Amino acid sequence: MSAARPIGVEVLSPGAFATLQDGGRRGFRRIGVPWAGVLDRRLMRLANALAGNAEDCAVIECFDGGLQLAARGGAVRIAVAGHAALEIGSGEARRALPAWRSLTLAEGEVLRIRRMERGRLAMVAVAGLAPPAVMGSAATYARAGLGGIDGQGRTLTAGDLLPAAAAAEGPERVLPQPPGGDAAPIRVIPGPQADHFSAEALAALVAGEYRVTAEADRMGVRLEGATLAHAGAAEIVSDATVPGSIQVPGKGQPIVLLADAQTAGGYPKIATVISADIPRLAALRPGEPLCFAAVDVAEGERLARVAEACTRELLAAIRPLYADGVDLAALYACNLVGGVVHALGPDYRPLLDPRPQPADPKRSTL
Amino acid sequence: MSPQIRLLDAGDAALTVEFGDAIDPGLLAAVNALDAAVERLARAGGLPGLIEAVPTFRSLTLLYDPLLTCRADVEAALAPLLAGAGETQAASGRHWRLPVCYGGEAGPDLEATATAIGATADEVVALHAGTEYRVYMLGFMPGFPFMGDLPERLRLPRRAEPRLRVAPGSVAIATGLSAIYPWESPGGWHLLGRCPVRLFDPAAAEPSLLAAGDCVRFEPVSAAEYARLAAAVAAGELPPAHWRPEAAAGGGR
C-alpha cells in the first residue's frame, strides 16, 4: 500500500496557527484583495534555498511552534528557517536539532517545532511543495477563501496532506550563521495622515514604549502604550492602507496593519513602518515591548536596500552539510566557523544522509 | 498641479496622491483619471517598479518595490500626469443593472428604514432603485463596492448595533452610500434587500464584477424571480455581461 501512496508531508498538528504562504498576491488591492503572503520574506527565501526550492516557492508559515509534520509515501526533504527548536522522531527515539538547515524525513518520521526560542514565526519549506495558485498566488487568505491547501483559503489542520517531491540525493544544506536578534527600534516614516494628530502625538509615538496585545495576527498588531491624540475627528473618508500602516482609532491606541489587512480604512494613519522592519514587528509576541523611531523616506529606502543585501549574503552563505558535520574547507574559506558551532549545537546528530560515514577519526567530531 | 493635490508619505514603498477629503463625484473623476493615466504610463514602461495603484474616494495610492525604484523617480514620473489632474470630466465607467429582492427575509431593515425616514417601504424601494449610483471604490473586503450617492432622504447613520452575520448578496445603505456584501461578514449597514449576482469570482479574468467608476442601477424583483436568478447564477448560466444592458445587446466588451 505504501508504495502506491503519493509522496508528501502530513500535518499531524498545525500548532498554534499555520498556513501555506508564498510571496503574496499582487495587483488586486484595487478590488479589495490584500497581498497576503509570508510575514517575513527573508525567512521564506532562506527556508526554500535550504530545501533546494526556488526562493519564492510556497512554504508553511507557522506561529508560536507546535507544528508537527510526518513524511508519507517516501522520504521528504524539509527545511525550517526561524529561531525554532526542532525535534525529530517520536517516543524514545526523539532527537533535538536546530533550525536553519535542511533535513530528510524518512517515511513515517515526524518533525516537530518544539518551541520558538525567539520571535513567533517560522517558515517550513518542503522540497517540491507546489499548491495551486489562485489569482496568481498560493498565499492563504482565509477571509475571502483564496489560496492555501485547497485553493479556498483554508488554514492547515491535522490530517492535511501536502504533496511533495521525493527527497533528492545529495548533502543537506545549512546556514552556518543564522541572522541574529535585533532589538533596535521599529523605524517608521510619518504620514500619510500625521497632520490629523495633535503636535504631541508623533513625539509620543517615538518616545513611548508600546506593548503587543493579544490581538496580533496576520491582519495586524494592536499595541498598547502612550495615547495618540487626534487633532480633529478620529475618522477620515476611507483611504488606502499599505502593509505597515499605523492606523489609530478613536481611543488613540495604534494598530499596525500587516499582510492580511483590509486594503482601505477610515482611521487616520499617523505613520508607516518601513518595509525592512515589518518582519521584526510581525514576529513580536503578545506582551513583548517595542519602541519606534522616525526616519525619512530616503532613509527608509536605504534600509530596504541594506535588508535585501543582508538577505542575499545569508543566501550566499548556505553550505552543504555532510554526515560528519560540514564542509570545513569551505567554511574556513568563508571565515564562518564561529557560526558552525552555533548552528549545529551540542545536540547535533547527523540525519538520514546516504553518504557513507568517513573513517578518518579527525573528522568524526566537529 | 492643482493646489488641492497633495503627495503624502506612505512608507518607503508607497506614495499617496490625495485629491481631497470628501465623498464627492468630482474627486472620484479626478482619482479615476489619474488612475487611468498611471496605468497607461506603466504599460508604456514609464513607471518601472510599480506594483499596483489603489484608487479610493479621495486618493490614489501607488505601491512600488523600493529595490527597483525610489520615491524621487516615482514622483518625477508622476509630475506630468499631476499637472493636468483634477480638471477632468467624469470617467466613462461601465453600466450595470442589478436585480434586488427588497424587504422580507432578504431585506430585514427595510421596514425600520421606512419608519426612520417617515416613508412607506415601497417609497424606500422607489428611492433606492430610482437612483443611478457610481462605484467610488472597492474595499473593506474583496469585491465590496462603495456606491453613491444615496438620495438625501435615505441617509441614515450606521446601525447602533452591528450585525455579526450579514448574508452574502445583501444590499445595504449607510450615510450617503449603498453597498452589496459579496461575502458573509459582520456589518453595521441597513439591509434593504438581496442581489443574486456574483460579485467576486476568483477564477474569472476580472475577479471583481464592479470596478471604481462603474455605474449601477438596481431593479426590484420578486422573491420568486430572485430565487430563479440565484439558481441560474449558481448554475453558471448568467455570465457577468448579462447584467450590462449595452454589453448584452452586443454593444460592449
Automatic annotation (TrEMBL), chain A:
It holds the Pfam family CT_A_B. It comes from the Bacteria. Keywords: ATP-binding, Hydrolase, Nucleotide-binding. Residues 30-310 form the Carboxyltransferase domain. One of its GO terms (molecular function) is ATP binding. InterPro entries: CT_A_B (IPR003778), Cyclophilin-like_dom_sf (IPR029000), PxpC (IPR052708). PANTHER family: 5-OXOPROLINASE SUBUNIT C. This is Allophanate hydrolase.
From TrEMBL, chain B:
Residues 5-210 form the Carboxyltransferase domain. InterPro entries: CT_C_D (IPR003833), Cyclophilin-like_dom_sf (IPR029000), PxpB (IPR010016). Transmembrane segments: none annotated. Gene3D superfamilies: 3.30.1360.40, Cyclophilin-like. The keyword ATP-binding applies. It comes from the Bacteria. Keywords: ATP-binding, Hydrolase, Nucleotide-binding. One of its GO terms (molecular function) is hydrolase activity. PANTHER family: 5-OXOPROLINASE SUBUNIT B (PTHR34698:SF2). This is KipI family sensor histidine kinase inhibitor. It comes from Azoarcus indigens.
